Amino acid sequence: MSTHSEIKRVTTNTLQSMKQNSEKISMLTAYDYSMARIFDDAGIDVLLVGDSASNVMAGHETTLPITLDQMIYHAQSVVRAAKRCLIVVDMPFGSYQGNSKEALNSSIRIMKEAGAHAIKLEGGEEVADSIKRIISAGVPVMGHLGLTPQSIYKFGTYTVRAKEEEEAEMLLHNARVLEESGCFAIVLEKIPAALGKEVAEMVKIPVIGIGAGMHVDGQVLVMHDMLGITRNFSPRFLRRYLNLYDDIKDATARFISDVKSKDFPNEKEQY
Ligand code: KIV
User: Fold this and answer.
1) Which of 179, 189, 267, 269 is catalytic?
2) I want to staple 134 with a disulfide (CB 3.0 to 4.6 A). Which of 93, 107, 181, 213 is the partner?
3) What is the CA(52)–ligand 1 centre distance, in A?
């Protein structure tokens, strides 16, 4: 009989070895116990408790409204479920931009109260001091460059980032800064594939892409997109593996119909 303690955990070192061995890293977002359990059982390498919870769980238009307390609640549920994968938790907007002490305190809350393994935050040089301070306290940090949704009001649009040379150069610079600051990995969101390749070849740490092409070291998708729960969202980078919106709607309609027609419950479905 196997116990949880016999399961070999994915760690930041595992991800580093995967890059060295050219083994691609799989990452999905998760926000609750039941889904995290399925993803972990399926063998996912990393679960990201993304601040996209603000969109897909809470129904906000952007990631900005979600709070640190709410992120910790989601993270606690995921941590209770996942026994094998590495669990990374997003630092929400407003929990780290003020100064490095605020950033450190927020990261400590996530680690202590949720039992997460690492945190992720958005930005480059402007958050380097915070990253160093968080890492000096023993907390692994994943960076996030390219389309950084917490800055959506600065960008004004969700279109592909760093298509122009100046922004691409800045992104390359920031990737170097994140590596030098001690990040164990970087997420690159919605940038040209050629730039994703350049970053992945330039830095020694794993680069995980979402809309950053095929040459990076791993891929991440938001679970609701991957499972086809979200609708009216079809960026080129998204591959849907199920069409759960329609399946769940059909199942719900059948349940309603069975109740109304008195077909459910039948003789065998009662005490
Ligand atoms: O919050 C999130 O889901 C993310 C992914 C898009 C990487 O940051």
Assistant:
1) 189
2) 107
3) 6
